[in-house]
Amino acid sequence: MVCLGNICRSPLAEGILKSKLNPDYFIVDSAGTAAYHIGELPDYRSIAIAKKNGIDISNQRARKFIANDFNEFDLIYAMDSENYKNICSLAKNESDLIKVKMILNEIEPTKDLSVPDPYYGGDRGFENVYEMLDKACSIIASSYL
Ligand code: 4NP
């Protein structure tokens, strides 16, 4: 799960998808394409909306997406089109590139919609992001049942 800062959207996506999959079989992680927040906890508003929904994401720490992530993961979900481009620019070959997906295409295929960046908005923005990611992650998880 990849966004810009790895403190708002992708930590939520990581926590939500983890909550829907068996950890014995799936590794879910998140990262940011930018380095601003490396080592930081998720934004307090992401921690709060996750907690409200029974998910603890306070153990996460921000990290940067690196080219080696293509070797470690089968699927890479971008939160928005800017992240998508930046992730793709680190791909070494076609088999890396086909791993990269826009997460909201799980809900509305081929539309390439972006999860809005809630960083500068209010709490309602985080609720909206939570709802979108919960829906997308339910679809992802259900494809493995
Ligand atoms: P995220 O949100 O990409 O969902 O983690 C942001 C967090 C920080 C900044 C931008 C977006 N920032 O500019 O510091």
Folded structure, characterized:
There is one protein chain. The chain has helices at 9-20, 44-52, 69-72, 81-88, 94-97, 123-142, and strands at residues 2-3, 31-32, 76-78, 100-102. The relative contact order is 0.20. It starts with a strand and ends with a helix. By secondary structure, the protein is mostly helical. The model has no long low-confidence stretch (mean pLDDT 97). It contains six helices and four strands. The site of 4-nitrophenyl phosphate (4NP) has 11 residues, from loops.
Describe this protein with a few key phrases:
mainly alpha, Rossmann fold, two-stranded parallel sheet, 4 strands, binds 4-nitrophenyl phosphate
Question: What is this entry, summarized?
Answer:
The chain has 145 residues and is mainly α. Helices cover 39% and strands 7% of the residues.
